[in-house]
Amino acid sequence: MTISPSSASTSSRTVRILGWLTAISLALTAVMALVISPRDVNMGDSVRLLYLHVPTAWLAMYVSFGITTLASVLYLWKRTRSRFWDLTAGASAEIGVLFLGLTLLIGSIWGRITWGVWWTWDARLTTTAVLFVLYVGYLAVRKVPAAPEVQSRRAAIVAVAAFLDVPIVHFSVEWWRTLHQDATVLSDRRLLDPQIGGTMAWTLFLGVVAFTLLYCWLMAHRFRLAWLEDRLADRAMQVAIDERRAEAGVGAGGTKKAGVS
Amino acid sequence: MWRDAVLVAGKDLRVEARSRVGINQVVPFALLVLVVFAFALDSDRGTLVSFGPGLFWVTVLFSGLLAVQRSFVIESDDDARDALRLSGLDGAGIFLGKAGAVAAQLLLLEVVLTLGVVVLYGVQLRGPVMLLLTCLAATIGLAAAGTLYGAIAAGLRVRDTLLPLLVLPVLAPVLLAAARACEAALAGAPAEGWPWVRLLFVFAIIYVTFGVVAFGPLLEEA
Questions:
Q1: Are B130 and B184 in contact (CB under 8 A)?
Q2: Fewer CB near the last or first residue (10 Å), C or N of chain A?
Q3: Do A154 and B221 touch (CB under 8 A)?
């Protein structure tokens, strides 16, 4: 298990190209969202926040946590068990939590402008908040020191258990709101209804593409970092063992015996 | 598997019965929480009656956390966990046993708490069938998910803080569903309650199944 020369540099060619593509598409999204796309009839300029809000939500909830779950299942399945899947799951969850946090933050700002409140117990918001805390817990489990094997298995089980909870949370919260409150202000249908067309739809689409690229780019870097950390831990162990052995060898060959065996 | 479950549950319940921690500390704690809620919400009867189901289940949830922690503290003392692992008992059986013992304790606690809610808050019990089924399903789900996460957090330095962080979001739908079902039952509107009871059973089934599958590998570690 040696580190290949390409991964020893800060980045590979593919990742650099990906990085440039991400930067360009993000810049384009910014131009589209801030300059080209029109103000919304009802929401005014605050609609521009949604070009950030929807892609981050999509990235976090579907892409990141989806991949975390998939990777965790693949890790738990004996045939495909490898450190690779564990590190993938962890890297993806970190990015997911970051972007879900951003989603909540941007959504909150948007809500303040549009509804006049920072937070409302809408079904979608509540589900998202619970999801956020679930994955914060997952990251906390990953941070608890343990043997690599143990840590990976523990994390994978937590990830799957959290994922099982998502549909239940979703339904319970949905019913809760529909039983106790009239139609909610924000529903996905109203947000993405066909009224939003033309430039707005394209901006949103571009945003989703840009953030997907961003996800891939961040994943490539985060995963590589995690992988190198892993290798480093292995290597440090090996170096330490070799040093002790060398000491012991010198001790046995020389006149004085080393204290370490 | 079932025989192992009964053995483990019997052991846990015997330990609890003899140490009397549950009776001497957890039950008084739960009642204390009810009293504290009354202070916090101003003991105006109307408020307490309408919030009764929610407060009841929040109390059960917190006491459940204590019960789960107790359930794994007795395993970490004297390396009992290793002994359990070496005993050759089925992992799934151990899970069912431990979850069963926690569920049994919680059901007992719920009986006491129900009395507390009736006496202290002046809640009038209605719809006994739905109340019973709600308690049963919610408790099984709570115990199963709690035991699963308890095993993950057990023996860690950070277990006291990690367990609530992991369990509370997972149990959020249980709290929600149980409180709503009880509200519906007490309000004499069972039609509104049944979907919640069903949801509680679905939750219980999912987490019991997952626990049965995942507990063996979890126990092997450390």
A1: yes
A2: N
A3: yes
Token digits of residue A79: 């045939």
Q: Does the beta carbon of B196 lie under 8 angstroms from any beta carbon of chain A? A: yes
Nearest residue, CB atoms, B218 vs list A133, A157, A171: A157
Structure tokens at A98: 């970051």
Q: How far apart are CA B188 and CA A119, in angstroms?
A: 32
Min Cα separation A125/chain B (Å): 14
- Interface contacts A/B by beta carbons within 8 Å: 83
Instruction: Give the SS3 label for residue A40.
Output: strand
- The answer to whether the CB atoms of B170 and A154 lie below 8 A apart is no
* Long-range contact set of residues B21-25: C-beta below 8 Å, sequence gap at least 24: B21/B70, B22/B67, B22/B70, B22/B105, B22/B109
Number of domains chain B is built from: 1
Q: Of A76, A158, A160, which is closest to B166 when you measure between CB atoms?
A: A158
Residues 6 or more apart whose CB falls under 8 angstroms from that of B165 comprise A133, A136, A137, A140
Residues of B in contact with A179 (CB under 8 A): 180, 192
Does the pTM surpass 0.95? The reply is: no
Which portions of chain B are predicted below pLDDT 70?
45, 221-222
Q: Domain of residue B23: give its range.
A: 2-220
pLDDT value at residue A122: 77
The domains found in chain A, sorted by start residue, are 14-38+46-185+199-223 (1.20.120)
